[in-house]
Amino acid sequence: MVPKPKILLHVCCAVCGALMLKILRERFEPIVFYSNSNIHPEEEYRKRLEAAKKLALENEAEFIEDRYDPAAWYEAVSGLEKEPEGGKRCPVCFALRLGRTAAEAKRLNIRFFTTTLSASLHKNEHYIDQLGKTIAEETETEFIAFAEICPDKKDSWKKASEISREAGFYRQKYCGCEFSNQN
Ligand code: SF4
Q: Does the beta carbon of 89 lie inside 6 Å of ligand 1?
């Protein structure tokens, strides 16, 4: 049997990854990559990390944790602290994490990568797909667009939520950075 190609799947949280990982397994051998230096505080980072590890384990996928480097994230978004969620800070945050995912794919000699960021109903999947493709061109990798994996976003979100509820995955109450946490 011909082995399936590997794909590096950037996972922002287990809930967003719940359905995408299952679907990707049909065509690929996914490796979960947790690269989320945006998450604040560290305690929250660790809760999402443990949930992502559980997701990988339940799907028999390899798991890689990137370095947690909040200082690099704060430097990247410097001057954009007052932007609202969905404003100018978010594209920088996406680019940082997707850039690190593409670099890791390159380092591991993996041709394909993608991200669970697009699964959230709060995120613009068209923008993220375009960004992923641009980064892929720059790094000579290949980005798999969200619509290729989950053509019906609302239905996919419903299914991902059901899977997550059944699996008991931790469900966060805010996007991730301290500026998105209103508590
Ligand atoms: S609101 Fe979310 S996507 Fe935007 S900068 Fe904060 S963590 Fe990143």
A: yes
